[in-house]
Amino acid sequence: ASQWAAVPQGPPDAILGLVDAFNKDSNPQKVSLSVGAYRDDAGKPFVLPSVKEAELRVVQSGMNKEYAGIGGVVDFTNLARMFAFGKSSDALRNNRVGTVQTLSGTGACRVVGDFYAKFLGKMAPIYLPDPSWGNHANIFRDSGLDVRKYRYWDSSTLGLNLNGMLEDLKAAPDGSAVLLHACAHNPTGVDPTKEQWAAICDVLKARKGKLAIFFDSAYQGFASGDAEADAYAIRLFVDEGLDFSLAQSFAKNFGLYGERVGLLSFVCRDEDEAKRIESQLKIIIRPMYSNPPVHGARIVSAVLSDPELEAKWRAECKGMADRIIDMRNALKSELEKAGSTKDWSHVTSQIGMFCFSGMTKEQVGRLREEFSIYLTGDGRISMAGLTSSNIAYVANAIHEVTK
Ligand SMILES: Cc1ncc(COP(=O)(O)O)c(CN[C@@H](CCC(=O)O)C(=O)O)c1O
To answer: What is the ipTM of this complex?
Structure first.
């Protein structure tokens, strides 16, 4: 018998596994609402013109294809972290930030997970919001951390359970890590208000040095359409003197999904600490994948280093965010037109790529079986899958399975 005879067939991924099922579905009316990837109103992937222009400049510049350093393309990491922290960031000005380029946001999460397992200790607890992005738990489990939850989604109000969240953050044992979504919470689309961020910051400030804070920022600019507004929580925590780590992804806001462009930063006490941590991140990366791809990083650098191109990008990113908001408004009104008497106000009050619809597994199953509409089992709708031509079909189907 083969030496791999005992290897079992693994289950499909909760999010990416739906793409295969969708592709195999022959129903001409099929609609994909599963993967958090932007589609235009024709349902097609969108390569931003500013990104295309930047890519042309990169190719025409005739750069070589040598390895980037373990920490990645330095122009990229400098510009990309400034994009998050802001040009006048105190942390950057005082060289208190250690940064490495990573394989997009997923890679940043894995590197920070391995760092925590090494320096907080094996099976150190990491607290994720309940619910969180499906892959977070897999990543941190594989890093060797003890994955736990803090209350986040309040199913009765379809909003944030702030008191539950604050209680759980207060109760997290010293030496735990806490993951926060910087904006456009995945999968709920529910973000703390500025007042709620202040309360969260105060609780974490009281635990300063006892909890490792990790921000995952995968949608900056894509949530509200304003990259500065979407960085509010990150910049508040720097202003309040908190140290934390930050994962950034350029997959959605720059449409660079398959180029795998991301970075991981640590805001530290001082320059010496930033250098020591950055050196340890490189020691984790070298045996993992050695160094990151240069092409996507060069494209983001070309955009962020040219004010005119960056302004074009900002307008295009706002365009994507605005189309999502249009689809939110359209879905709510189409549901009402279909005769639904349920309260769908969360569809328009939530922000970013996703709508946490509140539909049950069974209802999601019926949408797939009876209408060839694909969304994740938790009822999360990737709003970019909606277009002006399929929105009525989807709204009627949702009404059908929820009435
Ligand atoms: C909060 C969060 N962090 C990190 C990532 C990782 O994205 P990168 O492409 O590695 O930068 C995602 C993407 N989540 C989307 C995209 C598909 C996926 O990777 O699951 C989603 O939830 O559909 C995310 O939503």
So the answer is: 0.99
